Amino acid sequence: MQTPVSPFDALSALAWLPAAFLGIGLAASSGLRTFLPLLLLAGAAKFGFFGVNLNGSFAWLASNTAFWALAVATVVEVAGDKIPLVDHGLDSLGTVLRPVAGALAAAAVWNTQDPATAALLGLILGAPLALGFHAAKAGTRATSTVTTAGVGNPVLSVVEDIAALFLGVVSLLAPLLVPLLLVVALLLMWRVYRLARRLGRSSA
Question: Which of 31, 88, 147, 200 could form a disulfide with 134 if both were Cys (CB 3.0 to 4.6 A apart)?
């Protein structure tokens, strides 16, 4: 016979959902911008916004050094992504860095005393999600490069900045909305990809 599930166990499992969805949302945002979601997380933890509590092993993210280093890295990435050729270099680096950032973001918000468990959950949830969003973004950007000769890339870059910022902020404010936001984000990326393909066929 199956052992009945205690309502206290169910409530305990539900209590983990906000942290899990927060990590998932930040990881997805990391697939668009490597450092921006980590900067938002570091700022929230440092200044006590949104009730964010970092896992003890990742408390260093709230330090002055980490915060300002992430701020500089974010400015460099956002600005560099608007420059032809530099944006392709950043995308190539992002294939490695963005899954790492996604894993770090997801692990940092997972409230457990065991750092190995937090790191494992970050790898399982954060890294693949960040890599998936990065791959979708890179595919859309490559299509834009071919169809618009790179002219449309800065516009796409601004859209990606806004999407990464919006997804990161909403993940911090209302993590339970993250699953819906991810579906909407993927649908929008698919529509942008289809639009770029149609524009390319029309110009040809």
Answer: 31
DSSP string, 156-183: HHHHHHHHHHHHHHHHHH-GGGHHHHHH
Helix orientation angle between 86-108 and 64-80, rounded to the nearest 10 degrees: 150
Q: How many other C-beta atoms lie within 10 A of the C-beta of residue 152?
A: 18
Q: In terms of Cα–Cα distance, which of 59, 58, 29, 62 is closest to 44? A: 62
Q: What DSSP letter does each residue of 49-62 carry, written as one string?
A: -TT----GGGGGGG
Is the CB of residue 144 less than 8 Å from the CB of residue 159?
Answer: no
CA-closest candidate to residue 33, choices 76, 78, 67, 70: 78
Residue in this structure with the two tokens 């770029």, named with its chain if needed: 196
Backbone angle region of 85, left / alpha / beta, with phi > 0 → left and psi within -120 to 50 → alpha: left
In angstroms, the CA 124 to CA 37 distance is 18
Instruction: Please tell me the pTM assigned to this model.
Output: 0.84
Contact, 26 vs 168, CB < 8 A? yes
